[in-house]
Amino acid sequence: RFLVLIALFFCCFFCALEGVEVVSVGLVGYFSNMWNVMDWLNFATFFIVWYVINQMLSQYETPPCSELCRTVGYADAHLVMGTAKTAKTFLSICVCIQLLKIIKFFSALVPKMDLAPSV
Question: For the chain, does the N or the C end have fewer beta carbons within 10 angstroms?
């Protein structure tokens, strides 16, 4: 849970940085740049990931115990695995958005990469 809290702190920090930019540029000017929209889409997706990971950790710590679990000791972790699958799906969406942002930054550093974000 500590690493999840660190990730939440960094995401909130970057949200605050983007908020400062919104105030300085203005709402319409800020959101007219599609890269900024992608940033906020990525922040929203991360908060979904954070919620799902916390849900998964709480399901792992207090698993539901049925009659079979109480009598034999077998516990089925299908609920935790389903939540982990959902977290991985949203996390992969975050990674895809970040890869697009990396292409954008490389296009400014490497001259031949300038064609990639324009396509």
Answer: C
Query: What does the alpha-carbon distance between residue 90 and residue 5 come to, in Å, rounded to a whole number?
Result: 18
User: pTM of the predicted model, to two decimals?
Assistant: 0.76
Over 90: is that where the pLDDT of 112 sits? no
CA–centroid distance for 6 within its chain? 13
Other Cβ atoms closer than 10 A to 16 = 10
Report the candidate in 89, 77, 78, 96 with the shortest Cα–Cα distance to residue 53. Answer: 89
pLDDT of 56 higher than 70: yes
Which tokens is 30 given?
């800020």
The three-state secondary structure class of 83 is helix
